[in-house]
Structures are given as C-alpha cells and as structure tokens.
Amino acid sequence: MALNPLPIQPPAFISYLRVGRLLYLSLILFILESWVYWRFLDTAIQQSSLVTIVFWAWCFMFSFIHIYLVMMDGWSRYQNYKRAKDQLYEYGFKPRIAETYMGSKCQRMAAEVAAEELGMEEQLKSYYRSRGIKWYHYVPYFMLKEPLFLFKKSFWSRTFLEKNYQAKYNFKNLQLESTI
C-alpha cells in the first residue's frame, strides 16, 4: 500500500479523457473525414459512375468504421489505466508493471496517467526512457514484429475488446483519508 499522501485525484471522466487524448483527437478527425466522404458519396450517387460511387463508399466506410474502433480502443485503454493504477498503488513502481503497458503509445499513456495520479510518473517515464522508448514511438511494437496482426485474436481482444476492470480502490476516498 502507498504510504505517501495521494495527490488530488481528478474525476473519473477527466482521467478517461486524459488516457485516450490522442484517440479522441483522432476520433474528431474521423468524424470530420466521414462527413466529407459522405458528401462526396452523396454527390457521386446523384451524378457519377458506379466506379466513383464504389470508391467514395469505400472511403466513407473505412472512415466511419474507425469512429467505432477508436471509441472501443479508448474504452480498452481506460481499463488498462484502472488496472495499472491499482497495481501501482498496491505494489509501488515495479518494472514488471511498466513492462505490461509498454507495447503501444496508448497503453503507455494509460499507465502514465495512472502513475501521475499516484505521484509516480517520473519513475515510470524514466523506466520507459531507459528501455529506449521515445516520445514519437506511436506505432505499437507488435505491428512491427507481426505484420499479420489483424488476423490474431489477441490483437482484437487486447486492442478493442478489453474486459471491464472493476477498480479495487476508491482513490478519491483514499486521497481524502490521506489528508486527514
């Protein structure tokens, strides 16, 4: 258990947004992109050939499907955040915990937000730097190692279908108790 007083804990919704901030920025872009492609598709349906209609329909579907994938990815990263926060609180900073969330930028961000809310952010970031991870490492490492990742069940379950994690601790209450 943590012995130091906990920093002020933000509301869960703020943590949710902070964990997936890059994802939610891309969500806005996919919504705008879908709207633009829909406009082109609508125009093509009214006056173009089948090839043009198929092209804009494919573009629209690609972008529209990504709206849902980004939302599911954000949900999964929030589950990572809750698990990482519990683990860091219970065991303190351990390299093994950090390794669990090292695979992608989004997972690292989930762990970093959890660590920051517990006052351990510098330890975690320092560990990631020591492992050669740079701020610009956005592409998940598994994508580089396994080009056929789209056909792996582990990709889909870990990226978009992470099971709901029920946090063990109420950090708001713990923070209030630690200041008394």
Number of domains: 1
Number of helices: 9
Please count the beta strands (DSSP E, at least 2 residues each): 0
Order of helices and strands: HHHHHHHHH
* Shape, principal axes of CA atoms: elongated
Mean residue pLDDT:
90
| Residues in helices, as a percent range | over 70%
The first-to-last residue Cα distance is 17 Å
Strand content: under 5%
Radius of gyration: 20 Å
Outline the low-pLDDT stretches.
Answer: none
Biggest beta-sheet profile:
none
Instruction: Decide which structural class fits the backbone.
Output: mainly alpha
Any key phrases for this structure?
elongated; 71% helix
Question: What can you see in these coordinates?
Answer:
With 180 residues, the chain is an all-alpha fold. It has one domain. The protein has helices at residues 12-19, 21-47, 50-91, 95-100, 105-117, 121-130, 141-145, 153-159, 171-179. It is elongated and about 70 Å long. The mean pLDDT is 90.
List the helices and strands and how they pair.
Layout: H1 12-19, H2 21-47, H3 50-91, H4 95-100, H5 105-117, H6 121-130, H7 141-145, H8 153-159, H9 171-179
Short description:
With 180 residues, the chain is mainly alpha-helical.
